[in-house]
Amino acid sequence: MASRGGLPRRKPDLEFYLHRVFRKKSFRPLQREVIAAVVEGHDVFLQASTSFGKSLCFQLPAVISHGLTIVICPLLALMTDQVNSLQAIGVPVQTINSSTPLAERRLIMDDMLSGHPRTRLLYVTPELCQTDSFRRNLSTVHRQGQLTRIAIDEAHCISEWGHDFRPAYQELSWFRKNLDDPAVPITALTATATPRVRSDIITILGLNFAKLKLFNTPSARPNIHYEVRYLQNYDEDDDISPEDLRVQDLLTWLKAIKRRQEARIGADAAQRPPISGIIYVGLRATSEDLASRLDSEEMISAVAYHAGLTSQDRTRIQAMWTSPQPPQQRSDGKPPPIFSIIVATNAFGMGIDNSQVRFVVHWTPPRSFEGFVQESGRAGRDGRAAASLVYYNTQERDRIADRLMRDADNVRNRGGSKSHVAGLLKNQMARRESYQKVVRYCETVTKCRHALIKDLFGDYELEEMGSQQPPSIFGGARSDRLSPSASPCDYACDFCKEGSSGLAKRKGKMQAADALHGFMMDQMNELHQYYV
Ligand SMILES: [Zn+2]
After folding, report:
1. Measured in angstroms, how far is the CA atom of residue 340 from the centroid of ligand 1?
2. Residue 253 CA, ligand 1 centroid: distance in Å
3. Does a cis peptide bond (omega within 30 degrees of 0) precede residue 182?
């Protein structure tokens, strides 16, 4: 922080505010370092998993500092969640979005322009930041010396290479170009960004390399056991359908967990809240069918969760999900369930918080690698052991690849200006590259999956850029590369447990495991040629 009269200003007591305002006992690893960098006025880039508590990294500095922090947030639901929880602890926070009544909007603006705003955090959409009137007002607040910093949540939306590209995010480049003398510090936060997306975030926002501090959590989480479950490819002569095969395999896996739990805690097991798990499926219909099928099992209670549910159903399921209750006799007379499972399409996402998920299953190969890392990362957010399973065979692999190709064709046929189509194609290409990483992740049998995830996700590049990571119980990401003989993940993956030959044998079950369609590569090369 700037000094006055040559004397350094006293450092704020971060712990005091953490306890007093946010009512939390202690910072999570690395959180304190990020917050200190933000408070000191650096530009900050933070890439961290959903469990990290990213929002505290701009909320706490906003509470400590004078003036206003602008928070850019892409989703109304996310914004409302954060605003409500800040209001509940008495932080002066406001939001302007599509549902803010005009009169309220005026009151907020009046406060903002008063020269000494009471509001500490103002949540807005990227689209609002594009409007002349809002920009004019921001410039005024800046001239009055009251614009403390800008926090950009879900910053990966800025990049056409990202999976959630949002054009309005690119216009956020306005901040650095226009709010200068002094420049307003920017904090960019994301859970998922490939090296290309990261470089877009830094370049487009104009983050100042000399003053930039980078932080990240490893993309592969040490407490998650990663495993790929290979399934044999389906043949018409088979007497069991692929779906049945998966259900059978999952039930076997769950029964083994049940046995282990009973052996460990005996009869008390029945008194415990059920073990929570999420199964991600591709289609709403699958979500309904699978949920009812699993729910008919004695040891399981399962519900479907997808975008087609009424908001009442969603609220009910969310409530049940976020605070698992000790078991009760079920209405159908069955004994209390051992497992509570949500079968969800990937609409099941942000804002739903259960730190005790013990397993996340991908019923078919995920469509994007970033999605996979984020979704599997919903397991074990309490830091305790958890598992990520992916069901995989080459038939499913090719089915999804075909669908991605069709999406790209649709984009091409839709027309529009050349630059518009080029942008969309770039995005499609990024999607396919991301899917190819999923394929590599699933088909590699010669490497620790934790190391593989970090490799595919670009953790090592971040390290080379000087990004700070939380201390690792395995001695940091770099050591993964230096000690190929030891298990880099402490035996928390199928490769490290079964070895390459064991894994290759299981993979052999798929039969006729061809390489991924050549056409996917060809088309990508073609796109590269024309549009990049
Ligand atoms: Zn491993």
Report:
1. 28
2. 20
3. yes
Coil, helix or strand at residue 74? coil
Amino acid sitting at position 149: R
Share of the chain above pLDDT 90, in %: 58
Q: Give, to the nearest 10 degrees, the angle between helix 369-376 and helix 449-457.
A: 130
In degrees and rounded to multiples of 5, residue 29 shows phi and psi of -55, 135
Q: How many angstroms is it from 387 CA to the middle of ligand 1?
A: 13
Would the pTM of this model clear 0.70, i.e. be above it? yes
Q: Which position has the higher pLDDT, 176 or 485?
A: 176
**HSE toward the beta carbon, residue 70, CA cutoff 13 A:** 27
Distance, CA of 431 to CA of 159 (rounded, Å): 12
- Other CB atoms closer than 10 Å to residue 348's CB: what's the count? 22
Domains and CATH numbers, the chain: 14-216 (3.40.50.300), 224-467+489-509 (3.40.50.300)
Q: How far is the CA of 225 from the centre of ligand 1 (A)?
A: 8
CA of 257 to the centre of ligand 1 (A): 20
Q: How far is the CA of 494 from the centre of ligand 1 (A)?
A: 7
238 sits in which H/E element: none
What count of other Cβ atoms lies within 10 Å of the Cβ of residue 30? 20
Distance 106 CA to ligand 1 centre (A): 56
Residues 6+ apart with CB under 8 A from 88: none
Say what the pLDDT of residue 1 is: 43
Q: How far is the CA of 452 from the centre of ligand 1 (A)?
A: 9
**Alpha-helical segments (H) within 148-239:** 167-170, 173-178, 195-205
Cα 290 to ligand 1 centroid, rounded to whole Å:
30
- For the chain, give percent helix, strand, coil, nearest 5: 45, 15, 40
pLDDT reading at 478 higher than 90: no
* C-beta pairs of 97-105 under 8 Å, 24+ apart in sequence: 97/123, 97/124, 97/125, 97/128, 98/125
Residue labelled with tokens 């614009």: 147
